[in-house]
Amino acid sequence: MGEVFQATLSRDGIDEPVALKRMRAEVAETPDGLKQFEREAQICALLEHENIVGLRAFGKDEKGPYLALEYVDGVSASQLLAASDALPPGVVWQIALDLTRGLNAAHQPGRAVIHRDLSPDNVLVAFSGITKVGDFGIAKLAGGTSFTTTGAVKGKYGYLAPELFDGAEADVFSDRFALAATLYKLWCGVGAFKGRTEAELLRAVLSAEPAKLSTLRGGVPEDVEGWIHAALQKDRAARPELAPLLAALEKVAGGRDAVARSLEQ
């Protein structure tokens, strides 16, 4: 939907690096595209939390609408995984803790924001050691309009909950599934569901049970493993709340200094 550039925002005599997001020309020409861009700005304005990429400005200039988002000096979790055979346990669980805190903040009752596209690509790990949830480009408020084509499924296969392929609306339960699939990949280095093509991957999401994390990589805390597998259930109602996961991760997270050191290597 958009293109992102590094830029500088000058305000009140202070220069701040930002990630400047602009609509692609073909999207800007469609009414729904503009509405979704405006909705992204509204949603980002609601989400003020240290583990969520923040909104710095929203406006329009001669080049069209833009979003100025907090610039995260770091890498995505996907890039981090690609550079390492296996991240240290304390590093994985600290990233997971920050990520879960961010999603939990987005899911607060009364103004729950559904991310709809959570995956390692949209998890940003700063060189300072903090992790932030990014890219709310297709997010929506719980019960709100999504501005996507009827019947279209948005997001990345392997992280999308199975009910979404049957026409169900994305909700906190589908975000929990995506979080579990992301944590699975962070720990094991491979996805919870396998497929050489999108069709094979879709069949796996709909019918296959993922291997236990502990069979792919030992040392996973039992309560963390239990939460991840419960959240990957086909039955959306069986997916647990985030509170137990947060409590479990707080016991094993290695701290942001450990994450920062791992990025130096």
Q: Could you tell me the strand content as a percent range?
A: 15-25%
What's the overall average pLDDT, rounded?
91
Structural class: alpha+beta
What is the oligomeric state here? single chain
Helix percentage: 25-40%
Count of DSSP H/I helices: 10
> Going across the major beta sheet, what is the strand order?
1-2-4-3
Overall, the morphology is globular
Distance from N terminus to C terminus (CA atoms, Å) equals 34 Å
Order of helices and strands: EEHHEEEHHEEEEHHHHHH
What profile does the largest beta sheet have? 4 strands, antiparallel
From the alpha-carbon coordinates, what is the Rg to the nearest angstrom?
Answer: 18 Å
Q: Point out poorly predicted stretches.
A: none
**Tally of DSSP β-strands:** 9
